[in-house]
């Protein structure tokens, strides 16, 4: 499998191109909580998949990520869009650089999983620290919205085994509501589909893309939310 940590450090632009082939998530988030006029923190903001669609509506947005290279792409996009209501900062989810009760909404897309997968040491403790930090920085009535994979290349939820414990903890220990959505990649052609699948998901899925001619690559995503 490709090394995602390395990709986020060294290939931020190619990663950004890949996720640009998925639909906007603004409507999905707005269905859970309005964004207009609110203070938002985007955890694991990366190259800006969520930051770029939320920033035009938010009062302010703080984009946090462990990768400075990803945040650089994010900042370029926000600047290019003529927005000035944002800041970026390199940070760890277990230590959010924000004051107590300072935000209304926290979004975290495809990111908490890297600290809470069952293959990671102290995964349950990591999750507990992250949830406590999110609750600390949110105002009463604030909303947490988490998105994670439910399987790439599948038309119905097929979550990776190493994430099922984390998803179960969100729902059963921490009381998050949950649904799943389709978030298919729409690539320009088969060549792009194969290249991007091999780049991020590995050879097994890329070979399937070629054999099944998957210019549209199915993707399921889970959405979890909690009012604090």
Describe this structure in words.
39% of the residues lie in helices and 25% in strands. With 228 residues, it is of the alpha/beta class. It has a 7-stranded mixed beta sheet. Helix 4 links the parallel strand 1 and strand 2. It is globular and about 50 Å long. The termini are far apart. The mean pLDDT is 94.
Could you tell me the number of beta strands?
9
Shape, per Cα inertia axes: globular
- Please describe the biggest sheet, giving its number of strands, its sense, and whether it closes into a barrel: 7 strands, mixed
Bin the helical content: 25-40%
> For the CA atoms, what is the radius of gyration?
17 Å
Quaternary organization? single chain
The separation of the N and C termini measures 37 Å
The H-and-E topology, N to C, reads as HHHEHEHEEHHEHEEHHEE
Keywords:
about 230 residues; alpha/beta; about 40% helix; 10 helices
Short description:
The chain is 39% helix and 25% strand. With 228 residues, the protein is of the alpha/beta class.
List the helices and strands and how they pair.
Elements: H1 4-10, H2 12-19, H3 26-32, E1 39-43, H4 51-54, E2 60-65, H5 68-80, E3 86-90, E4 103-109, H6 113-116, H7 123-137, E5 138-152, H8 164-172, E6 177-182, E7 185-186, H9 190-200, H10 203-212, E8 216-217, E9 219-227
Helix pairs in contact: 9-10
